[in-house]
Amino acid sequence: MSWIQKLYDTYEQCAGQADLSNAESSLEPICHTSQQAHIEVTIDGKGNFLRANVISKGQGVTLVPCTEASAGRAGSKPTNHPLCDKLQYLAGDFLKFGGVVTSGFANEPTEPHKSYLSLLSDWANSSFTHPKIIAIQAYVQKGHLVSDLVRERILLTDEKNQLLTEWGGDKKEAPSVFGVMPNGNSPDGAVIRWRVEIPGEPLSETWKDRGLMDAWIAFYSSQKDSQGLCLVTGEILSLAEQHPAKLRHGADKAKFISSNDTSGFTFRGRFIDANQACGVGFEVTQKAHNALRWLIARQAYRNGDQAIVAWAVSGKKIPDPFANSFDLFGIVSEEQEAKQDHVGPSDVGQAFSQRLAKKLAGYRVEIGSAKEIVVMGLDSATPGRMAITYYRELDGSEFLNRIEAWHKEYAWHQNYSKDIKFVGAPAPKDIAEAAFGRRLDEKLRKATVERLLPCIIDGQNIPLDLVESTVHRVSNRVGLEYWEWEKYLGIACALFSGYQKERGYQMALELNRTSRDYLYGRLLAIAENIEDRALYVSGEKRDTSAAKLMQRFADHPFSTWKTIELSLSPYKTRLRTKRPAFLATMESQFDEIINLFETNDFMEDKKLSGEFLLGYHCQRQTLRTKHETEQTDNVEIATTETN
């Protein structure tokens, strides 16, 4: 039960961070849940109706009191919330206007309202009452909520004075309540929230009134009578009868702890009752689940039903393990990196490491002596059962060291788009796309991210099949859009260099590296550069032979190189006339690279490893930088001569 203990401790330390004005991202108090409200009803302190309005889309998430049963309600006979809920519970005249209750109440259609009014009255008449609750009770007992909403034109009726369940006219002229109901549902399923305007009381919203919330918590806690051993705290406490749901979103019914199968074999045969199998204090489970819900909404990595969240128990801000280096640290592109640190291209890797250390130093100061960092992954195989798929507890320094190692070991020049170029590690979701394509199956995406999690948090090496799959897809260049290929090229280089970290690859061109695969990559980059320059000179725009034959080159480099070299002849002829100096330089580099091959290595036709992409990328980067520098120098010379 370590996970629930850490979440409980997190709630205790972060409770002061609750923001009741934002129900979607607040750390909720116990005995409360978030509900999507559609209509807001305002009354005075004596229970008289004042006005009503439809809540605009995006403004309806409301913090409402709940019971254990209502928080996890499901099925055809859902339990009512004690204050804010649907019309079938709140309106005494719901049936009079043709309202249809849920199927479980078909034989007792008045039961939902009776149950709601009974619980509300018990609260209003207790020692834990509140002036707003007394006013709401007085209004609800009058039994004309629907009549008031019809009179205000919030709800519409037909010629038989029955609630209009659908709009048959022009959608542009439809009443606003039809526009806020989810999935085209009928307005008779609208959820009501309350405002109570009392003279001298500036806060009319019940969902923001801390005093009202505390009153409900005290009242509901006083009704608990099931005592037992809490396995989390080790104390005798009021035990939870049901555990909260709605962890990932408002419609999430999956639970970690559940024992509602009293006739099956969930616990029977080993224990007499469910609490003997797993007894957790009512307040403990409420706080732990509320903390997890808050963390998921605020900072989790989400992918469908999968959610992975990392947090400090103290509530301190920590780096997101699932962000790329640019999003996490804001580290600039390699060109800006070199300019800001006054370093040459060969020192970019070192400059990145220094910047990374500075960024993480800020987190080390922020976290301070905090020793409890938790990384937790959860997913559900079925709608009702939640599973913890990954769980680690680390101290602050260990966690930051692992994050630093990941971003340093898997750092490379990344080209995500025209505006996003940086040095650093890619995000796990981008690695999954690079390995299997943008349209990969969600299950495969989730499985890939889960496989990468130990690489980041535990310092394990990245799976070889992911490296090989990414290298293979990048080599098949004609099967990708140009921007997509550029992005995946940087990711493939990052993965291969990180997987082979003992070889010490540099992010800049290594002129002294003489391995066969690296040199072949350099040759391919120069061949592509020659043809690309010739096409540019003649005003043509199309793929080069090197680009088209990249996959074949990766499988059979020597035989394919002959084809590429022969295809360069007409382009060399063109450049010999218009760019002789450029061609001479490229041919000189060809000779230098070929001379670096070990004996017979050049003539081997076996498949290249991902190392050829490193040589290709570094050589291409060097050629592009040199070309841009030459263009800048030419512009400056032309400007000087003109002046």
| Overall pLDDT confidence | 88
The CA-CA distance between the termini, in Å, is 78 Å
Query: How many distinct domains?
Result: 4
- Model regions low in confidence, pLDDT < 50 over at least 5 residues: 337-343, 632-643
* Rg: 33 Å
Count of individual helical segments: 25
Largest sheet: 4 strands, antiparallel
Structural class: alpha+beta
Percentage of residues in strands: 5-15%
Shape: elongated
**Adjacency order of strands in the biggest sheet:** 8-9-10-11
Got a strand count? 13
Binned, the helix content reads 40-55%
Write structural notes for this entry.
With 643 residues, the chain is an alpha+beta fold. The protein folds into four domains: 1-25 and 224-299, no CATH class; 31-223, no CATH class; 304-488, no CATH class; 516-642, no CATH class. It is built from 25 helices and 13 strands. The strands form five sheets. The chain has a four-stranded antiparallel sheet, sandwiched between helices. Strands 3-2-5 form a three-stranded mixed sheet. It has a two-stranded antiparallel sheet with strand order 1-4. α15 (428-436) crosses α16 and α15 packs across α17 (464-475). The termini are far apart. The model is unreliable at 337-343 and 632-643 (pLDDT under 50).
